Amino acid sequence: MVRVPAVFHVLSVVVMMFALCLLFPLAWSFYLGDAAQAAYDVAILVTAFAGVALWALTRKHRRELQPRDGFLLVALVWTVLPAFATLPLLLYLPQLSFTDAYFETVSGLTTTGATVLSGLDALPPSINIWRTFIQWIGGMGVIVLAVAILPLLGVGGSQIYKAETPGPMKDTKLTPRIAETAKGLWLVYFMITVACVLAYRLAGMNWLDAMMHAFTTMSLAGFSSHDASFAYWNSPAIEMVAIYFMLLAGMNFGTHFLAWRRWNFGPYARDPEAWLYLLVVLGSVLGIAYYLLANHTYPDFWTALRFSAFNVISIATTTGYASTDYNLWPIFAPVWMLFLCGFCTCSGSTGGGIKMIRARLMAHQAVREMTRIIHPRAVVPLKLGDAPVENNIIFAVLGFILIYVSSFVGMTMLLAASGLDIITAFSAVVACINNTGPGLSRVGPATTYASLNDFQIWILTFAMLLGRLELFTLLVVFTPGFWRK
């Protein structure tokens, strides 16, 4: 049975930690002297008070969490923290409704990058810093950060890490202790982010933009401090930096961690996803470049390659940046890009979608079934590299794909029934459940989600949470069996 008071006790600690995160934009607001300081003061007080009050009410229920408790904690963290994250937006932008503000912060923490805000260039810098910072936090996961710290409080982290970590093979450990694993992943994440900041600065961004866009590049999140996104700079050098780090962030951070510890590139060669991920993404870049050239979208191949490379990699890695309005390209190109965002990124990356490893397993399983039809008595093992894959993993992936497709179809039908045209409905669900951000038509890269009504916004908010928590972690909490003894 789920021990709700014990879960809420741990949640109180996470909320108090989140209040500390608000000090980051407050410090920038103070340093830059912008108009949002009072909003952060109130937000910090409210968030800290809520955390302390919840801690006081539940301090007698401090217990070691069981796996079932971990699922509830993860679901609560990813639904409760965005509510507190809305406070600076609601206090500084009183015309913003709670529905829109919650959508914005869920989009931030889930690294989706879908936005309802416009006039970003005119906002106080600290507001954009907060929007991008929560994406950076969400990129590796608030829970993984908590796992690195909560053992100091006597709270077990292993079951929480498994509930939150993306990918089908969650029992793989990089180090003997789960807290050490979480710290190692965050260290690598931080170091690559610092490298990204420096690269953006050298390419021509100012320090503030370099920091904010490094946050959203490494988290594959896509928020920008400018309405025009990367078209604001129109710089091939800046786009090249973004391309490199987006590709890097789309790989398994466990692989980065192992390569860093061993000081060699061997882990990349042995990664069952990395080479296929690069092959699919870079092959699509070339294919769409030739397609755009053939359709006379751009006058020469190098221009077509430049715009194809940046925008295809941005969408395929579920980042969501744009350097042009690809909504105006021949329809095959943006639809193919949305298709890529459903599976391209690697498990253990900061990207969304079903992950390359699941797509590869399903392809192998399809080939195995066809082989069995031809040779009914043949024993056809399924392997990734030299390692056999157990049938329980295949069954879990099949169940995941079934729920993924069912959720996608169901939410698309709900949006269509609410009055959205089918292209907007389809692309919005694709963009949100895969944590990509921009879709097509009314939610394309040159527009925002502000034109949607509250019902549609809540459907897409749920889609973002569902995608970020990889379906099962969130949906299992709604099953009757979860609450039985």
Provide the fold topology.
Elements: H1 4-21, H2 23-32, H3 37-58, H4 67-85, H5 87-92, H6 98-109, H7 125-140, H8 142-149, H9 158-164, H10 178-203, H11 207-218, H12 236-249, H13 253-262, H14 266-270, H15 274-294, H16 301-316, H17 332-341, H18 356-374, E1 383-384, E2 387-388, H19 391-417, H20 422-433, H21 454-468, H22 472-475, H23 480-483
Antiparallel strand pairs: 1-2
Instruction: Describe the largest sheet.
Output: 2 strands, antiparallel
Gyration radius over CA: 22 Å
* Continuous helix count: 23
Indicate the percent of residues in helices.
Answer: 55-70%
Which class of secondary structure composition applies to the elements? mainly alpha
In what range is the share of β-strand residues? Answer: under 5%
Q: What's the end-to-end separation, in Å? A: 4 Å
Order of helices and strands: HHHHHHHHHHHHHHHHHHEEHHHHH
Shape: globular
Unreliable stretches? 149-161
What does this protein look like?
Mean pLDDT is 89; it is low at 149-161. The chain has 23 helices and two strands. The chain has a two-stranded antiparallel ribbon. The protein is mainly α. Helix 2 packs antiparallel against helix 3, helix 4 crosses helix 6 (98-109) and helix 7 (125-140) crosses helix 8.
Which key phrases capture this entry?
2 strands, 485 residues, globular, 65% helix, mainly alpha
